[in-house]
Design goal:
This protein is of the alpha+beta class. The protein contains 13 helices and 23 strands. The strands form 7 sheets. Strands 3-9-10-16-13-12-11 form a 7-stranded mixed β-sheet. A 5-stranded mixed β-sheet has the order 20-19-21-22-23, sandwiched between helices. A 3-stranded antiparallel β-sheet has the order 5-4-6. The longest helix has 20 residues. The protein is globular. The structure holds glycyl-adenosine-5'-phosphate. The site of glycyl-adenosine-5'-phosphate (GAP) has 19 residues, from strand 10, strand 13, strand 16 and helix 9.
Length: 456
């Protein structure tokens, strides 16, 4: 483990928390599980949706130079011939002659089976695309593929987007969705899956300006992960050397995160020239060139591709946010998630089940849930309820006590600092909105008192 890593967040703790609190389950668990496929539970689905929505809001809806797409997973088989995936989307596979376990040859440190030390076969190329059949006849003419990336859906729609939106260069197309890869080696929880989601951008630029835009997107995407809470020291850039680059690529940088098992790729930003549009133009016979209205030139734009994994993003956010400390004399584990991605934004906790407290608490709960995902919890001690919310990353807890009946005020407790304020119910929604949008604790009209997590 390097110094940069969050030493409290071991993979075992993250996996256990995700299982125990309903973030992530193994796919088909009651049948023994399906390797490298995962189901997002009630909290996981909220977290994942929040990550995707933050990306969509920041990368698509807030930008004048970006439009979105949602293309089909199944595409014409010629797409994958033209893109180069049929020919070269391979990993080198070796098999142990003793225990028959399979490994990726390029990931082995020694030329022997990592499981039993046995002799390995010669590497053979293994195509990672999942195949299926379209229509009722299962013959070779009916073979189609589950897409291994969302990118090609954007390239093949380039002309549709230009003609329907009249976008001028530079502009981007963005989409997110499922991708499938028959990975040889998987593991490390949701880091490398066979079914996963990507958030990809194809940003088209005038040839000659690609270096400037490549730098722009590397910086933009690096900042985005930090804006959503990832600590700067847990992120780094890795520039691909010449030997690693595909023959057409002009440059590529990975944004890496300090996962518990080591530095790993979170997102790749590639400068791909006009390779993809050229390939699809040649293979389809369709003219995919762009007409520059100012100069009247026709050319194929170059493309910059920032491509991120949603599942890897979720894992990075969980690992980065995980913390342990002591509150009220008891150890607590916390997910210090950014409020934008926290699955539950607030919890309403009545201090007694004696009416009219629950009715009032329910009214507040119903009012808040019209704006956010909010939980209502009236079981066990207040300390236990705080711990439960801290562990799933809920930024704010709202307690309602008998005093509330008299002064119409509630106590709001902040997850990270455990600081508390008392404020009128009429100001609760506005204050929460400001705090969830990132207003610092000390700001605003209310003064937070240093808290110890005890009953207010
Ligand atoms: N269109 C370019 C492309 O797909 P990639 O580097 O192969 O590039 C982009 O994938 C991102 O997708 C990676 O940085 C990673 O976050 C995610 N990703 C790739 N393979 C994955 C897998 N098997 N499981 C989970 N995420 C994966």
């Amino acid at each position: 483990m390097t110094e940069e890593m969050n030493s409290k967040a071991t993979m075992e703790k993250i996996v256990n928390l995700c299982r125990r609190r309903g973030f992530i389950f193994q796919s088909s668990e009651i049948y023994g599980g399906l390797t490298s496929c995962w189901d997002f539970g009630p909290l996981g689905v909220e977290l994942k949706r929040n990550v995707k929505e933050a990306w969509w809001k920041d990368m698509v809806q807030s930008r004048d130079d970006m439009v979105g797409l949602d293309t089909s997973i199944l595409m014409h088989p010629q797409v994958w011939v033209a893109s180069g995936h049929i020919k070269s989307f391979h990993d080198p596979l070796v098999e142990c002659k003793s225990c028959q376990k399979r490994w990726r040859a390029d990931e082995l440190e020694k030329p022997a089976c990592p499981a039993c030390g046995g002799e390995l076969s010669e590497p053979r190329q293994f195509n990672m695309m999942f195949k299926t059949f379209m229509g009722p006849v299962e013959d070779s003419a009916a073979v189609i593929y589950l897409r291994p990336e969302t990118a090609q859906g954007m390239f093949v729609n380039f002309q549709n987007v230009v003609t329907t939106t009249r976008k001028k260069l530079p502009f981007g197309i963005a989409q997110m969705g499922k991708s499938f890869r028959n990975e040889i080696t998987t593991g490390n929880f949701i880091f490398r899956d066979r079914e996963f989601e990507q958030m990809e951008i194809e940003y088209f630029v005038k040839p000659g300006t690609q270096d400037k835009w490549f730098e722009f997107w590397v910086a933009e995407r690096f900042k985005w992960w930090q804006k959503l809470g990832i600590k700067a020291e847990h992120l780094k850039l890795r520039q691909h050397c010449k030997e690693e680059l595909a023959h057409y690529a002009l440059g590529c940088s990975d944004i890496q995160f300090a996962f518990p098992m080591g530095w790993g790729e979170l997102e790749g930003v590639a400068s791909r020239g006009d390779y993809d549009l050229t390939q699809h133009s040649n293979a389809s016979g369709k003219n995919l060139s762009y007409t520059d209205e100012e100069t009247k030139e026709h050319y194929l734009p170059y493309v910059i591709e920032p491509s991120a994994g949603v599942d890897r993003g979720v894992l990075a956010f969980l690992c980065d946010a995980y913390d342990e400390d002591v509150a009220d004399g008891e150890p607590r584990s916390i997910l210090r998630l950014h409020p934008r991605i926290a699955p539950v934004k607030a919890a309403v906790l009545p201090l007694s089940k004696k009416e009219p407290l629950p009715s009032l608490a329910r009214d507040i709960f119903n009012d808040l849930r019209s704006s956010w995902v909010v939980q209502y919890d009236d079981t066990q001690s207040i300390g236990r309820r705080y711990r439960r919310q801290d562990e799933i990353g809920t930024p704010f807890c709202i307690t309602i006590d008998f005093q509330t009946l008299e002064d119409k005020q509630v106590t709001v407790r902040e997850r990270d600092s455990m600081a508390q304020i008392r404020l009128p119910i009429s100001e609760l929604k506005g204050t929460l909105a400001a705090k969830l949008a990132g207003e610092a604790l000390g700001q605003g009209s209310h003064v937070w008192k240093a808290g110890d997590g005890k009953t207010p």
